[in-house]
Design brief:
Blueprint (H helix, E strand, L loop, with lengths): L22 E12 L2 E6 L17 E8 L6 E8 L11 E6 L12 H8 L5 E5 L16 E7 L3 H12 L8 E8 L8 H10 L4 E8 L13 E3 L4 H9 L13 E3 L5 E6 L2 H8 L1
Length: 279
């Protein structure tokens, strides 16, 4: 799921195999990506012969029940995930998940730790898909100038959008720049994939800059697409200038229209990132 060429395999909203009822799906495979992140393959789906049929940039919900060590009370932990696989795969789907460790209020861990560490291959977990989790659809953003502001696992819906944009030979007018924030170089999820796409499709994918918050300056050698600190106004303006776009915007959960109707800004990352960039 984190290699190969982009694939345009689009479906309209409303046909996803996962409905608004919880469906148990087994874990088929767990593939290490970094020291604390994995690609998790789930399947078979209820209909093994067809894809997940999730629309572009939409997400699904995963749920597990956890028992309190203190009083034994069982509570459900629910988190959204955007698959990194596309609708050209029949019968299963892939999630890219970072293990945030045991549950705590700051990281929202617990479920990610269960998926990456304590869940066994063959075990099942519940998934569902609801209308609220359907975001902006392709081709609504075809032929637009797009600024992607990404933090950590927020890369997953961007990968879905890039599949649609770069896999579409007809979207010649799309121009994309990305600022991708991570803690360290080792934390960059899916780096080889997005970096390779930027090199393969320079007319559409104009620029990708990795912004590292916890890395010492010059720690990454011979890499012109790395900056240090956090995504800020200066970096956004520099990237926007590459596509002659204004970065002025107000943000929603995943995408926002700027003052220019030909420019769209996608934002996805942890809550502190939304607070800093969107207010």
């Amino acid at each position: 799921a984190l290699s190969g060429l982009p694939v345009k395999a689009l479906v309209p909203p409303g046909v996803c195999q996962l409905t608004d009822d919880w469906t148990s799906v087994p874990l088929l495979e767990r593939i290490n990506v970094t020291s604390n992140s994995h690609v998790l393959r789930f399947g078979p789906l209820p209909d093994k012969s067809t894809p997940l049929n999730l629309s572009t940039c939409a997400c699904i919900l995963a749920k597990t029940d956890k028992k309190s060590k203190d009083d034994g009370e069982v509570t459900s932990v629910i988190r959204p995930y955007t698959p990194v696989s596309t609708n050209n795969l029949n019968g299963y789907f892939d999630l890219l998940v970072k293990d945030y460790g045991p549950s705590n209020a700051e990281t929202g861990g617990g479920l990610s730790n269960h998926l990456c560490s304590t869940m066994n291959v063959g075990d099942t977990i519940d998934f569902k898909h609801i209308k609220f989790n359907i975001k902006i659809q392709y081709p609504e953003f075809a032929s637009k100038k797009i600024i992607m502001l990404v933090g950590g696992t927020g890369i997953t819906p961007m990968i879905q959008a890039l599949h649609a944009i770069l896999g579409d030979d007809d979207s010649a007018n799309n121009e994309v720049v990305m600022l991708y924030g991570s803690r360290t170089e080792d934390d960059i999820l899916g780096r080889s994939l997005v970096d390779s796409w930027a090199k393969q499709y320079p007319k559409k994918f104009k620029s990708i800059v990795h912004v590292l918050s916890d890395e010492k300056e010059s720690a990454v050698k011979n890499d012109n697409n790395v900056r240090y600190g956090y995504i800020n106004q200066k970096l956004i303006e520099e990237s926007a200038s590459l596509i002659n776009a204004s970065p002025t915007t107000t943000c929603t959960d995943s995408a926002a229209d700027s003052n220019n109707e030909d420019v769209i800004i996608f934002v996805c990352g942890p809550p502190p990132m939304y607070n800093a960039l969107c207010g």
